[in-house]
Amino acid sequence: MTTSDIDESVRAELDRLRSSIDNIDAAVVHMLAERFKCTQQVGHLKAQHHLPPADPAREARQIARLRQLAESAKLDPAFAEKLLNFIIAEVIRHHEQIADQPGERP
Q: Angle between the 56-72 and 77-100 helix axes, to the nearest 10 degrees?
């Protein structure tokens, strides 16, 4: 079966669902951008006060919190944890870069 063989009502429903997915993807990207703006500020604050880029205790609390949120949202908690671990790794990388920049430390 080719896409041209799909019933028009099925095609319309696919288009509607895909449009919703596209909107959600856009919202996710914008939310991640906002999150990274905040974590960049945290990175600058940490650098200015000679704090380490990583905070394992905070990260563990965040993972536990996100797993609970995922469960209540009917999302696989293991997937949510993998996603947050990926984001945390990127945040730490940013914090390390900020700490290595001249002028970030008093």
A: 150
